[in-house]
Amino acid sequence: MIAEADLVERAGAPAGFAPLKLGGGFGSANGAFFWRREGEGTIFGTRIEERHCSPTGKCHGGWLATFCDMVLPLSCRFAIPEYEERFLLTVNLSLDYLAPVSAGDWLEGRCVVLKQTKRMVFVQGVLTVDADPVLRASGVFRAGPPAAALR
After folding, report:
1. Cβ contacts of residue 29 below 8 Å, gap of 6+?
2. Angle CA(123)–CA(28)–CA(133) in degrees, nearest 5?
3. Is the peptide bond before 32 cis (omega within 30 degrees of 0)?
4. Cα→Cα distances 104→13, 67, 93, 129, Å
5. Residues linked to residue 120 through DSSP beta bridges, in sequence order
6. Total domain count for the chain?
7. Residue 141 falls within a domain, yes or no?
8. Cα dist. 42→9, 60, 121 in Å?
9. What are phi and psi of 82, to 5 degrees?
10. What is the rounded distance in angstroms from the CA atom of residue 10 to the CA atom of residue 110?
11. What is the 8-class DSSP label of residue 33?
12. Does a structural domain hold residue 128?
């Protein structure tokens, strides 16, 4: 087991980022993922590695889509108390790829909850590298079964 400080240092995560505890599965195979609070919101981040890239050396669009499919609902779980310990199941995910992302880049995701209903949440977000937008996303998620705590 790698200590949190070693994980942060190995990824070169900016100050204030802590490892996101997702458990096994996708997070273990494709992370490490990090988070930090910023005002009322949460920023998610990761260091793009060679294994995330296509033969062109650019991050694979499918990997970026999957990262968005984590960042958008996780943002809702951090922002909405009744969703904090629930899976949010993807109903719709729309993406606009704005710029390429390269191996070695620190990628950040920020999201805003637009609307919440009894069982659905609508959210939009932007992924950035060095504060430059590289992907715009919007999603609709449905409240699902209980999930493990994130923090």
Report:
1. none
2. 40
3. yes
4. 11, 16, 26, 10
5. 142
6. 1
7. yes
8. 20, 24, 17
9. -70, -10
10. 23
11. -
12. yes
Question: Which single residue is written with the structure tokens 């997702």?
Answer: 22
Instruction: Give buried/exposed letters for 116-137 (b at 16+ CB in 10 A, else e).
Output: beeeebbbbbbbbbeeeebbeb
Q: Is residue 26 part of a domain?
A: yes
- Specify which residues 142 forms β-bridges with: 89, 120
pLDDT digits (tens, 9 = 90+) for 56-107: 999 999 999 999 999 999 999 999 998 888 999 999 999 999 999 999 999 9
What is the pTM (predicted TM-score) of this model? 0.90
Residue 126 belongs to a domain with what CATH number?
3.10.129.10
Tokens (6 digits) for 130: 């060095």
Type of residue found at 78: F
Q: Using an 8 Å Cβ cutoff, are 34 and 20 in contact?
A: yes
Side chain identity, residue 106 = W
Q: Would the pLDDT of 1 be above 60?
A: no
Residue 65 structural domain: 4-146
Say if CB 4 and CB 36 are below 8 A apart: no
Establish if 87 belongs to a structural domain: yes
